[in-house]
Design goal:
By secondary structure, the protein is an alpha+beta fold. The chain contains 1 helix and 4 strands.
C-alpha cells in the first residue's frame, strides 16, 4: 500500500490577480511582485500588464492588471 503524502508536502499553486488604478500603476504592480519574491516565494509565471476599465464606476481611473502563478511552498 502506497503511503499518501501529507498536505504539507503537496504543491500549493495559486493564481493571484493583481491590479492598481492609482499613481504609477505599473511600478505598483512590480513592487508587489518584488515583495512576494523577497518573502522567498516563487513566481512561476506572470502575465503581461493589461488595462481594464473601472467597474461599476467608470469615472475613476482605469486599472493596470496582471496575473501571477505563485508557489506558496
Amino acid at each position: 500500500m502506497k503511503k499518501q503524502d501529507t498536505l504539507e508536502n503537496q504543491v500549493n499553486l495559486v493564481y493571484l490577480a493583481l491590479g492598481s488604478n492609482l499613481g504609477d500603476k505599473k511600478n505598483n504592480l512590480n513592487k508587489c511582485i518584488d515583495l512576494i519574491q523577497k518573502e522567498g516565494d516563487i513566481i512561476k509565471k506572470r502575465s503581461k500588464f493589461y488595462s481594464t476599465k473601472s467597474w461599476p464606476n467608470e469615472n475613476i481611473p482605469n486599472f493596470i492588471n496582471s496575473i501571477i502563478l505563485h508557489d506558496t511552498k
